[in-house]
Each structure stands twice: as structure tokens, then as C-alpha cells.
Amino acid sequence: xxxxxxxxxxxxxxxxxxxxxxxxxxxxxxxxxxxxxxxxxxxxxxxxxxxxxxxxxxxxxxxxxxxxxxxxxxxxxxxxxxxxxxxxxxxxxxxxxxxxxxxxxxxxxxxxxxxxxxxxxxxxxxxxxxxxxxxxxxxxxxxxxxxxxxxxxxxxxxxxxxxxxxxxxxxxxxxxxxxxxxxxxxxxxxxxxxxxxxxxxxxxxxxxxxxxxxxxxxxxxxxxxxxxxxxxxxxxxxxxxxxxxxxxxxxxxxxxxxxxxxxxxxxxxxxxxxxxxxxxxxxxxxxxxxxxxxxx
Length: 296
Description:
By secondary structure, the chain is α/β, with parallel strands linked by helices. It is built from 13 helices and 9 strands. Its EC number is 1.5.1.2.
């Protein structure tokens, strides 16, 4: 039976450094292939984590976007073949539908000395191993958008050729923008559904609660301030107390009070069941994205 490895790396955790991994090759470089929001957030996090701009590269299809990122961060834009020949770590951050042409570019120039890290939702390590030269180590990672504020939750899984040192490198890299957990790759579609898409569920609920505040007569700015700080406080309580969410909810739920009346309505309208069904649907879509690239 697969067991989740509960090793969570934070920005303070001691792990194998990129310098250690590539000591024989000189100063390590990381190339982010596809500098959208997630790619940019990773580059920013690496800089804030102590990496130098000349240790980083990125590729981007739009020249205006490339110029903007270079101006903002001092990081050089390049093309995919050059990035593959130059970098020790290639972070693939393109949309799943764009992966095939990218792999076509990578296959002739990447080798087994290069670590490939996929941030692509739904795409298994076997796809990369099938399309790239034999022996290339691949690590599959699923971060989420709080990477933009240094509070991502990322899950990583090794491919066939990825060793412990490769996982440590990815942990170090992603720990600059949040926390990291190791899981078997078989659990990655569930991770994608739960934490990869998870921030959207919270945003959806916060949006609905703000609308409820407006309906009850509060100004929008007041409703937003009340709900956003309540969300921050509730998340902090969960993180810091270690209490089960049921215990924390019950502490707010007085007999015959306002909260239990609200909980009864949520249960009556099937909110719990709807959330579970929604997360299952996201898991299924992640599986579909991977299946679309299976051979034959």
C-alpha cells in the first residue's frame, strides 16, 4: 500500500543544496520553461531565497513579457534549447496542452545530467521519461497559487530515475515559496484536486460570504475586511493549534446559537457533499489531462 511520506520542508529546513548537487559542474543554474504567474512566482521566490539572477534563466513565448520580467528581476530570457544546454535544473511550467511541442524541443538537447521538474497539472513523469533521453531524472511537483505570496503548498513525487538527492533539490527550490510534502505519484491527481485547485475553493467561499454580508446591509469594504481577516485568523488557528477542524468549529458553535443555525443551513443545502463532489471532479479532470498524452 502506498504511504504518504510526511516530510514537510519549510524555508528553514536544512536540505541538500543545489551547489552540492552540481559541485563538479560549477555554479548551478535553474531555468524556468514558461514564465507565467507560477513561473514568475518561483523566480521571485528563488531570488528572495538568496539565488543570484545570473544563476537563473527563463523562457517565454511573448517578447513583451520577457522584457518585462528581465526588467523586473534582472534574469535573462533565452530559448528552450539554450536553457536545456545551460541549466542544471529545468522547471517545466507550461500549460499541459503546450507540453508536446516543448518536449520536442527538449528531447534533442537534454541529457541525464539535467534534472527536469514538472509543474504541469495531470502530466505523469512517465510522459517525460518516454519523450526524453533514457535516464533523465524527472520530479513531478504540484504547487498552488499562494506561491505568489510565499505561502504555497507543494507536493513532489519522483520519477523512475529520480534519486533522493533530486528530491532534496526540488524541496530546497520550492521551499523558497512555501511548504513541501512528498507523496507517491499515484496520489498526485488527488493533490492537484485538493491543494492545487484548493485556493479557488476558498476564494469562491469568501466571495459568497462577502455577497452575504452585502445582502445583510454591510458596505462591501466592511464585508471584505471582516471575511478576509476571519479567513486569515481561522487558517492561522488551524496551523498553530494543531486541533482538528471539528474541535475548532464546535468551539464557535453554542447550543441554540447563531452558528449552529448557519451550520444547519449549510448541511441542508449539501455544501459538504458539493465540496467533496467538486474535488472528485477536479481529480478526474487531472487524470484526463494525463490520459490525453498516453501512447496509442
